[in-house]
Amino acid sequence: MSGNPQMPAFQKPSPAEAFFNRALGFLVGLGIGPNYMRLLQAPGRKSGRMQWVRNAEAAGEITLKRGSARNTYRLRALPDGEKPEILKLYLEKYKSQVQRYFPVLAGSPAETFRDIAANYPVFELIPA
Known about the structure:
By secondary structure, the chain is an alpha+beta fold.
């Protein structure tokens, strides 16, 4: 798995995963769920499709919502050279949820992510 620098094909959620994602998003929007979770809102994101990156880039900002709290952030897209360490930390922290979207294994050295960095959008969030 760690020798293939190609982006894995997008895997459509199963019906059960889609239901769980919608239910969890609804609960997080109400302020219920793990404290680290936020509902991401990007202008133009009404279709429910995985287009949030394009919408966020076009608008230049996103809102993170949890219950009645809303925080708006401007986005700064990170250049590929700044992504490897962040991608490594993200994969390690959320391995059980996101490993299937990475062609490298959690625990791999940061330099392993250099070849795949261009395939993953990474943003710095700047309070608006």
